[in-house]
Every structure is written in C-alpha cells, then in structure tokens.
Amino acid sequence: MYKVISKKTLIFFFITLMINSILVFHAWANLKSITVQSRLDLRGLENIRIPMTPSDAEKASNLTLVNDGNRQDESCYYLSPKNNKELQISFMVQKGLIVRIDVKRNSPIKTLSGIGTGSSESKVKQVYGKNITQREHPFHGNAGNYLIFTPVEQADSDYQIIFETYQGKVITYRTGLKNAVRLIEGCS
Question: What's the predicted TM-score (pTM) here?
C-alpha cells in the first residue's frame, strides 16, 4: 500500500525545497516598496524601470496603480499609486508600457542627486552642470524655465529629465524616454 521513499529521494526533495525557499526569500528581499525616501533616476524609480508594463511595475514595487481619472484612450494615459497619494507621482503609459514618471508639486521624491520640488535652479545647474540646457517655460514665460538634463553616456541617450521651474524653484519634474518626457501637456 505505502511506498517507501528512498533516502536519496528524500534528500533530493529537501534540497530542492531549501533552494526554492532561498530563491523566494531573495525575490522578496529585493522587492522595494516606493516610499517618500525613494529616489528617481533617468530610467525609473527604485524597481520600476522604464519601459515596463504597469503589471510588472506593480509586482516590482508593491504598489497598486490606478487610472488617475483622465484616461482618454489606450494609446496614452496616466496611472497613480492607489494608497500612496503622499508620493505625488504618476506614470505615463503609452502602448502598454510605462514611458515616463511625473513628480508633481510638493512631492517628497528626489532624484539620486538630491534634487526635488523646491530645489533652486542654481542647485540643479550646480548638480547637473554642463548637461543642463535651459529654455523658457512655455506657460510661465520669463518667470519660469525648463531645465533639461540630457545625459552624455550613450547607454542613456534615449532618456531625459525635465525640471520645470517657477520663480527660480523646481515645481515639478519628469523622467523617462525622451519623446515622452518632451510632451509638454502629457497625453493631451
């Protein structure tokens, strides 16, 4: 009735179980939730990398992303964290992929270099140096600017960060694929 399991089979079973447990723990340990201390870079925010599907972004970040209420059509729309409104961020989705991250007014999220909303134009220029191009803000005229960070590394040539300023201070910024970052009114 009962089959006796060999010692080798039992050892193999326990070794397989231990390896799988280690792999699951490793994956869980590498899951980084997005918090107010999270840092943004050219290619994303913590484990959310550009380009990435919204589903993969949710799995990588432990966030639930929801339509921000302005979904026009499937070709371009925004998602925001459901229960993390204090982050003040949104994700532009084009053709099923996150292509841009917008950091809104009063967001605590900063770049890897420590720049965030409220930073001065001079601090942005000091930190990013010759990689910053300044253009007059299209809506604020001479009261504001676009400070555009373009990386020099070939591997990053498809990415940009645009810092929007008003009266000398960063009010919002966005990072991602160049073509998406350059859309002044987002998906509009």
Answer: 0.81
Q: Domain range for residue 59?
A: 39-181
Strand order in the sheet with 89-94: 65-67, 76-81, 89-94, 97-103, 169-177, 159-166, 141-149, 132-137
Number of domains in the chain: 1
Residue 28 lies in a domain: no
> Residue 111: what are its φ and ψ, rounded to 5°?
-75, 170
- What whole-number distance in Å separates Cα of residue 90 and Cα of residue 67? 10
CA–CA separation, 78 vs 103, rounded Å?
A: 12
Mean pLDDT of the chain: 86
Band (142; pLDDT cuts 50, 70, 90): confident
Please name which of 140, 152, 87 lies closest in space to residue 163, comparing C-alpha atoms.
140
